[in-house]
Amino acid sequence: MLYAYGATEEWLDQIAEKTESNYPGLAVLWVHPAAPRYIKNHATPNPGMPILIIQDRAELLQEKARLRKTDYYKSWH
C-alpha cells in the first residue's frame, strides 16, 4: 500500500494503469477521499488520504475464487 498525500484522482489513475501495464502480474486499486466507491449502493470505507493498493493479481484471483464458494458475495445483492 502506498499513501500518496496530495495526489489527485487523475494521477492515481494514471499510476495504476501504467503499473498494471508494465507489471501484468500486479493489480492496482486507487482510493481517493473525494471519490468514494460504492458496491450495490453501499459506500465502501474511504481513507483520509489518497492511497494505491498494490496486490499480486494471481493471489487476488485465488482469493476471489475462494470467496465465491462462501456466502460473501450473496450479501452484496
Can you put this structure into words, describing what you see?
The protein has 77 residues and is α+β, with helices and mostly antiparallel strands. It has one domain (2-76). It is 34% helix and 23% strand. It has two helices and five strands. A three-stranded antiparallel β-sheet has the order 1-5-2. A hairpin with a 2-residue loop joins strand 3 (38-39) and strand 4 (42-43). The protein is flat, with a radius of gyration of 14 Å. The termini are far apart. The relative contact order is 0.21. The model has no long low-confidence stretch (mean pLDDT 88).
Number-wise, the strands total: 5
Q: Can you summarize the main beta sheet?
A: 3 strands, antiparallel
Radius of gyration: 14 Å
The number of domains is: 1
Strand order of the largest sheet: 1-5-2
- Helix count, per DSSP? 2
How are helices and strands ordered from N to C?
A: EHEEEEH
What would the principal axes of the Cα set say about the shape? Answer: flat
Structural class: alpha+beta
Euclidean distance between termini CA atoms:
29 Å
Question: If you average the pLDDT, what whole number results?
Answer: 88
Provide the low-confidence segments as ranges: none
* Strand-residue proportion: 15-25%
